[in-house]
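Q: I'm building a small set of examples for a reading group on sequence design. Run inverse folding on the following structure and report the sequence directly after it, with nothing in between.
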């Protein structure tokens, strides 16, 4: 079967499902503040009552605090952290937050960074960030050839003292391949360890990974695409894609960019604003 025909067969089910009753409707949706047009990362406070949000390239070096209905509580300026291209938020068991500054559309960055910060306690002081840097050993050219543009990333999560970074495929022709890297959650510079890979699907608009999270129990991983969730469970070891896979399609008007688990059966998802639609915080059931 030709690559072209495979692409058609994989693409049309995504289109039909996202436009049909088979796509999951949100349990709730709330408009985000006008300042949050390009949400790129979500995290939930340990008590589950507050939401942390960041925005990507071209936006202020700020962390935003909202309630569960999307109303702004406060925002916090970060020191020692520049928004080169912030793409996701992760959180460890102690409640520390991590900002993934590893957006790399052109696959030419040599300054891939993760910022660690203590979650705000309500004070408006600047948040001081600690810096962790890393590189992909498999990338030898900056940028590589167009068929090897595999080193952008918009998704990661924290697990057992490490970050798991899932790359965003920009290869031409598009292959749907996402790489999974493991990086120690420790200060310093690290060589990321390639622990797995995953073929999402063959449509470049729907099948690029834009967000990720791990459930509170550590037993589920969610990867987010444009209107699609890939849910992995029953996995062992670092390569979670070797577990059971469930695909869930979502009704959302624009590019879905960030996901965080509320519990084992529910997630929050944020999308960006596009032509005055979107810019919302959605609650979806996974059941």
């Amino acid at each position: 079967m030709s690559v072209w025909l495979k692409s058609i067969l994989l693409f049309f089910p995504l289109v039909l499902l996202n436009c049909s009753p088979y796509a999951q409707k949100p349990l709730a949706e709330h408009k985000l503040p006008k300042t949050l047009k390009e949400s790129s990362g979500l995290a939930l406070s340990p008590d589950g009552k507050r939401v942390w949000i960041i925005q990507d390239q071209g936006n202020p070096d700020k962390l935003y605090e909202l309630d569960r209905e999307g109303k702004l509580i406060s925002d916090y300026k970060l020191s020692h952290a520049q928004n080169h291209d912030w793409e996701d938020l992760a959180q460890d068991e102690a409640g520390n937050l991590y900002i993934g500054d590893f957006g790399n559309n052109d696959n030419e960055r040599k300054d891939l960074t993760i910022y660690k910060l203590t979650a705000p306690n309500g004070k408006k002081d600047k948040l001081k960030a600690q810096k962790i840097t890393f590189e992909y050993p498999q990338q030898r050219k900056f940028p590589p050839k167009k068929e090897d543009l595999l080193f952008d990333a918009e998704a990661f999560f924290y697990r057992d003292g490490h970050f798991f970074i899932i790359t965003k495929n920009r290869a031409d022709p598009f292959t749907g391949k996402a790489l999974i890297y493991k990086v120690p959650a420790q200060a310093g510079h690290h060589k990321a360890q390639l622990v797995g890979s995953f073929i999402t699907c063959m449509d470049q608009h729907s099948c690029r990974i834009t967000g990720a999270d791990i459930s509170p129990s550590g037993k589920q991983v969610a990867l987010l695409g444009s209107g699609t969730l890939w849910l992995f469970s029953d996995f062992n070891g670092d390569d979670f894609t070797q577990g059971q896979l469930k695909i869930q399609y979502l009704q959302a008007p624009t590019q879905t960019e960030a996901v965080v688990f509320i519990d084992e059966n529910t997630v929050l998802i944020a999308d960006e604003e596009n032509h005055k639609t979107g810019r919302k915080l959605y609650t979806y059931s996974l059941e």
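Residues 3-285 form a domain with the Neuraminidase fold (CATH 2.120.10).
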